[in-house]
């Protein structure tokens, strides 16, 4: 990941002072967002102390507006208090397509590091999700996903070895899981039960993703099915919320 670039104070187009008669917080937010847009993604922003002293406002007021822009995805925090302009988020549009297909459709070459790829005995929870007996042989695959050399997501999934024999023999750092399932076993995803929630990463996952343990992430838990209703895989993955947006499309049946 390239080192974020510092934006020197002399290069910033900051007003000399806030306008009288307008809420200070609103003005600060507009100014900071404008600076972030002009600076471009991945740039180090001025410190809270600098902005507070420059505009003669309380540091808490500056922190509040920066926090709002972090929540809006304009900025992100790293290494404690440093604030950077956010990168353009990669959007995951179709929950039936793979990470590899999503990124390639956007002209990005994804990279993968396999963290775990072993056959294990299914516990009650995974057995229930895969619709196999407890103790059945299950392939557990855990991969760290990169976009432009930046850690993006920790994907964890489980598949039945009885349904996909020898699945553990493939090179999952170079091969797409969904494409391999279709080409090798003729299995194609048809629908997905998906639950999405916000959570803080564990210290282990934060280390893998190169983020602070206080940075919000998205947990995406899904069970993928084929056209006959059979379970293909059961996964629970962690995505960086500052790099990942989930778009859904809903349609009412009937009138």
TrEMBL record:
Keywords for the protein's UniProt record, in alphabetical order: DNA-binding, Transcription, Transcription regulation
Protein origin, superkingdom: Bacteria
Basic and acidic residues bias locations: 13-25
Name of this protein: GntR family transcriptional regulator
Pfam family, one: GntR
Species of origin: Amycolatopsis heterodermiae
HTH gntR-type domain residues: 18-88
Keyword Transcription regulation assigned: yes
InterPro entries documented for this protein: Bact_HTH_transcr_reg, Chorismate_lyase_/UTRA_dom_sf, Tscrpt_reg_HTH_GntR, UTRA, WH-like_DNA-bd_sf, WH_DNA-bd_sf
Region Disordered, annotated ranges: 1-25
């Amino acid at each position: 990941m390239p080192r974020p670039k510092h934006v020197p104070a002399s290069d910033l187009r900051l007003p000399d002072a806030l306008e009288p008669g307008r809420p200070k917080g609103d003005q600060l937010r507009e100014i900071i967002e404008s600076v972030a847009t002009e600076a471009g993604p991945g740039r180090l922003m001025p410190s809270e102390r600098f902005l507070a002293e420059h505009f003669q406002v309380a540091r808490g007021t500056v922190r509040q507006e920066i926090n709002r822009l972090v929540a809006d995805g304009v900025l992100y925090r790293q290494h404690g208090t440093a604030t950077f302009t956010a990168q353009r988020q990669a959007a995951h549009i179709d929950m039936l397509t793979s990470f590899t297909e999503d990124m390639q459709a956007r002209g990005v070459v994804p990279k993968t590091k396999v963290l775990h790829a072993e056959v294990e005995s299914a516990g009650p929870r995974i057995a229930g999700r895969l619709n196999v007996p407890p103790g059945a042989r299950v392939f557990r695959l855990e991969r760290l996903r990169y976009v432009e050399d930046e850690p993006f997501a920790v994907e964890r999934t489980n598949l039945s070895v009885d349904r996909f024999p020898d699945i553990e023999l493939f090179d999952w750092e170079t091969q797409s899981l969904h494409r391999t399932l279709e080409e090798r076993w003729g299995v194609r995803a048809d629908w997905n039960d998906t639950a999405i929630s916000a959570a803080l990463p564990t210290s282990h996952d934060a280390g893998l993703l190169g983020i602070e343990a206080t940075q919000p992430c998205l947990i995406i838990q899904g069970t993928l099915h084929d056209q006959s209703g059979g379970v293909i895989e059961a996964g629970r993955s962690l995505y960086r919320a500052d790099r990942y947006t989930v778009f859904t499309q809903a349609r009412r049946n009937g009138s």
